[in-house]
């Protein structure tokens, strides 16, 4: 507790709460400790606001950009039903972005500024979407396993402390269950199909395994910083814990289908009850997230094109007498 | 020009460095609060916001965003600017103080009196 303590702004551990009113900070932390939610107009530490905006905004961008590799396959999905289902899924993902941007907006960053930061490359989005979906099977692996990873992350964050983000995530998680089932069904269809279909899904899985292992990010450093974010219920689980949870839930399902994962060290350690695996290549992760991936340029160029070509419609509908007010919840 | 795996993207002839003018405030319009009624007889519940240039489009976006999947009987949209809300800091005004038992069902206990009366009049 920081109730009566003087917070030294020069002390590195306290940099996150430097300059904050100790009484308000104590009330804020007590509210979170009681399991209550923080609402938009409540007092909150500057760093809490900043970290949440960054996190929710990036989550929104990931939904928008994630629709692109999957959208690639809408017109070529095998059969009318799969085309319809994929279209519905992609529409959901774009809807998720709307919900997330709305939540971030309550913290004071306008939607226009978020879009600007995306299209100039200032804001990041999930690194997996910088990889292409070469075949139909890639789109199936994304729908099953990337969405599975996203669900683990979203279910954890839905128990966080910021009301609008939790409410958005609750809605999102409901829709994700369809994505997961749809993706699993597609992968099972290929894996139990002809030898060519099996080969196609195996190749897609091999391609996607490294990005999937990157998905939850590098091990969190144990730092005062992450400790405070955990106490504020901004961060709900460590990256490694989420990765373990994913492996626990999905490796057996993948092996059930007789598919092979491209990591000879991957196995459940009977002693630790945790999964052993080859450490992912974090240099590759950094290279891709900083613009060096196969699709970074394309993703942002497409997003800018959509923005630019749709602009005249939005301008035509604009009414100069209206004024922006930050949403309430 | 971007050559994509997605033929729809390739067809658009997009320059890789297609820099565009940044968005300016109100490009995405103002916001409307959306209220969703699941079925006739239920209360409308606040479900979130949409950005829209007018109420008609707010209803359209509200339908896409909040009525796309869940069973829906009706939705309302209200401009955020037209909502007046109390302050969380004033939440103490909602506290029911213990001496206000007179306005709760539990504040009325008659069985003691009835039993006492019955007992007295049986004798
Ligand atoms: Fe999503
Ligand atoms: Fe999804």
Could you walk me through the main structural features you see in this protein, from its secondary elements to its overall organization?
- The complex is a heterodimer of chains A (329) and B (123).
- Chain A is mainly α and 329 residues long.
- Helix content of chain A is 62%, strand content 2%.
- Chain A has a single domain, classed as Up-down Bundle (Ferritin), CATH 1.20.1260.10.
- Chain A has helices at residues 22-33, 46-71, 80-105, 111-119, 136-157, 163-191, 195-214, 224-231, 239-256, 282-292, 296-317; strands at residues 267-269, 274-276.
- In chain A, a hairpin with a 4-residue loop joins strand 1 and strand 2.
- The longest helix of chain A has 29 residues, at 163-191.
- The relative contact order of chain A is 0.11.
- Chain B is an alpha+beta fold.
- Chain B has one domain: Phenylacetic acid degradation B (Ubiquitin-like (UB roll), Roll).
- Chain B has 3 helices and 3 strands.
- Chain B has a 3-stranded antiparallel sheet with strand order 2-1-3, with helices on one face.
- Chains A and B meet through helix 3, helix 4, helix 6 and helix 11 of A and helix 1, strand 1, strand 2 and helix 2 of B.
- The complex binds fe (ii) ion (2 copies).
């Amino acid at each position: 507790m920081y109730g009566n303590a003087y917070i030294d702004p020069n002390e590195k551990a306290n940099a996150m709460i430097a300059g904050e009113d100790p009484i308000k900070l104590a009330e804020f932390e007590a509210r979170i400790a009681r399991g209550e939610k923080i609402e938009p107009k409540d007092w909150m530490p500057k760093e809490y606001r900043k970290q949440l905006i960054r996190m929710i905004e990036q989550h929104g961008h990931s939904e928008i950009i994630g629709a692109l590799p999957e959208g690639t396959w809408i017109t070529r999905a095998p059969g009318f039903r799969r085309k319809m289902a994929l279209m519905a899924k992609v529409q959901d993902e774009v809807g998720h972005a709307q919900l997330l941007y709305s939540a971030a907006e309550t913290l004071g960053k306008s939607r226009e500024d978020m879009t600007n930061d995306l299209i100039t490359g200032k804001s990041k989005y999930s690194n997996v979407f910088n990889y292409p979906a070469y075949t139909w099977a890639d789109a199936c692996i994304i729908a099953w396993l990337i969405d599975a990873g996203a669900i683990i992350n979203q279910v954890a964050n839905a128990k966080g402390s910021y009301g609008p983000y939790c409410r958005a995530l609750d809605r999102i998680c409901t829709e994700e269950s369809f994505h997961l089932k749809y993706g699993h069904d597609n992968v099972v269809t290929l894996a139990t199909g002809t030898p060519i279909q099996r080969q196609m899904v195996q190749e897609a899985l091999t391609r996607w395994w490294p990005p999937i292992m990157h998905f939850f990010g590098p091990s969190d450093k144990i730092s005062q910083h992450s400790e405070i974010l955990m106490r504020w219920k901004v961060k709900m689980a460590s990256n490694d814990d989420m990765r373990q949870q994913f492996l626990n839930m999905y490796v057996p399902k993948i092996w059930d289908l007789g598919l092979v994962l491209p990591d000879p060290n991957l196995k459940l350690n009977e002693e630790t009850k945790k999964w052993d695996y080859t450490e992912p290549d974090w240099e590759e992760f950094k290279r891709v997230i900083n613009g060096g991936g196969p699709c970074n340029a394309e993703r942002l160029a497409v997003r800018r094109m959509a923005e630019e070509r749709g602009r005249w419609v939005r301008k035509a509908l604009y009414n100069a007498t209206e004024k922006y007010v930050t949403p309430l919840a | 020009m971007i050559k994509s795996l997605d033929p729809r993207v390739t067809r658009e002839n997009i320059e890789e460095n297609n820099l565009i003018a940044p968005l300016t405030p109100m490009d995405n319009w103002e916001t409307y609060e959306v209220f969703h009624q699941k079925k006739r007889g239920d209360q409308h519940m606040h479900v979130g916001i949409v950005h829209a240039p007018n109420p008609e489009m707010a209803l359209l976006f509200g339908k896409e965003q909040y009525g796309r999947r869940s069973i829906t009987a009706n939705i309302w949209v209200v401009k955020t600017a037209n909502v007046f809300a109390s302050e969380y800091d004033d939440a103490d005004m909602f506290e029911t103080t213990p001496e206000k038992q007179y306005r709760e069902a539990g504040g009325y206990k008659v069985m003691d009196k009835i039993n006492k009366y019955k007992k007295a009049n049986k004798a």
